[in-house]
Write a structure and sequence with these properties.
Layout (H helix, E strand, L loop, with lengths): L1 H28 L1 E7 L9 H14 L4 E6 L10 H7 L4 E4 L23 H10 L2 H10 L3 E10 L4 E3 L13 E3 L2 H9 L3 E3 L3 H10 L4 E2 L4 H7 L7 E3 L8 E8 H6 L2 H37 L2 E3 L3 H22 L14
Parallel strand pairs: 1-2, 1-3, 6-7, 6-8, 9-11
Antiparallel strand pairs: 3-10, 4-10, 5-8, 5-9
Helix pairs in contact: 2-10, 4-5, 6-11, 8-10
Length: 338
């Protein structure tokens, strides 16, 4: 009996000891990260996608990595999210890579470029054809790492105060459109500006903008652009497929255990596909509402604009290549030794 009592008592004691040791260890291993976004809170597809991604990471890690979401303006300005991760005031940001084109022209290629890849093609390039390695090289200089986090599909070409009949209507037009596509419009004569999605409506209403493109019917209906502009162009030639990104502080990400790193990556991939389904389901419904209930007129861009855009894109790409590619080296002189 004494032996059994000892064994039983030892087992209970060991259990208590294990509990007293394990509890603080588990508590210490729990991490809370802040995600800042460029989107308004609960914004369809994008804001909700960011929140859903944060919830996925938290749930998949069973709270070991808890992600708190701060929408545009709650912690940092909408277009200050990338800098927030670089500077360390947030561990994650959710936005679109081409918003940071002022830091590197290459960022546009991880969102969407004129006459470029569809969202499915972009995902294939990133996952299987070396795109992630290129992305890592670009973002390494800022101490961050990017992941695809959402797929909006082919976007709309924008909202205009009047129908575009040709290039003459573009000259001097104040147009909100970012990325390499914005450069193409600028080379066609537009005055291009970039601003966060939540600021576009007020700029259109005040006359600070003559036209704007953001995403597509699902988002554009929610933002109310149809209340000011009635001429809507579809599809976009500058964004045949567009991806959002999750940016993480690279040093902090590298310090995570391998399983938490894998959870972040897997959650991003799942959300990329989830957002695509959400947009494919809701864009046609929203477009029908815009046309039938709000009198929106849907157009395709005139051939004159499409053709010149392609030429201007070629010029932009050549200049981009000259900026980022090293100068070719002259071959060494042949040795005269035998």
């Amino acid at each position: 009996m004494k032996r059994r009592s000892f064994i039983k008592g030892a087992a209970i004691g060991a259990g208590v000891a294990a509990t007293s040791v394990a509890a603080p260890a588990i508590a210490q291993s729990r991490i809370t990260w802040r995600m800042v976004t460029t989107w308004p809170r609960n914004f369809p597809g994008l804001g909700t996608g960011a929140q859903r991604l944060a919830d996925r990471i938290t749930a998949m890690s069973e709270g070991r990595l808890t992600v708190q979401v701060f929408s545009a303006g709650e912690l940092v300005p909408a277009l200050g999210t990338f800098d927030a991760v670089i500077e360390g005031s947030a561990e994650m940001s959710h936005g679109a890579a081409y918003y940071w084109q002022n830091k590197s022209q290459a960022t546009a290629f991880f969102t969407g470029v004129p006459y470029g890849m569809t969202s499915r093609e972009l995902a294939a390039w990133i996952r299987y054809m070396g795109g992630q390695e290129v992305w890592d090289e670009v973002y390494d200089q800022f101490g961050v790492k990017g992941f695809l986090s959402g797929d909006t599909g082919t976007q709309a070409g924008g909202w205009f105060r009047k129908e575009l009949t040709g290039l003459s209507d573009v000259q001097g037009m104040k147009f909100r459109t970012p990325g390499l596509g914005g450069q193409v419009w600028q080379r066609m004569g537009a005055t291009v500006v970039n601003m966060a999605g939540g600021e576009i409506y007020a700029a259109l209403q005040s006359g600070a903008l003559d036209a704007a493109e953001f995403v597509g019917p699902y988002n554009d209906l929610a933002l109310g652009f149809h209340q000011i502009c009635k001429d809507y162009y579809f599809p976009s030639f500058i964004e045949p497929g567009l991806a959002t990104e999750l940016v993480v502080n690279k040093e902090k990400f590298s310090a995570l255990p391998a399983d938490l790193q894998a959870i972040v990556e897997s959650a991003c991939q799942a959300e990329y596909d989830q957002v695509a389904s959400e947009f494919y389901a809701n864009d046609p419904i929203a477009l029908k509402t815009l046309v039938e209930q709000h009198g929106v007129r849907v157009h395709q861009f005139p051939d004159e604009i499409l053709e010149l855009a392609l030429k201007r894109l070629w010029i932009s790409c050549r200049r981009f290549a000259m900026e980022v590619m090293p100068s070719p080296r002259k071959p060494p002189k042949a040795s005269s030794a035998h």
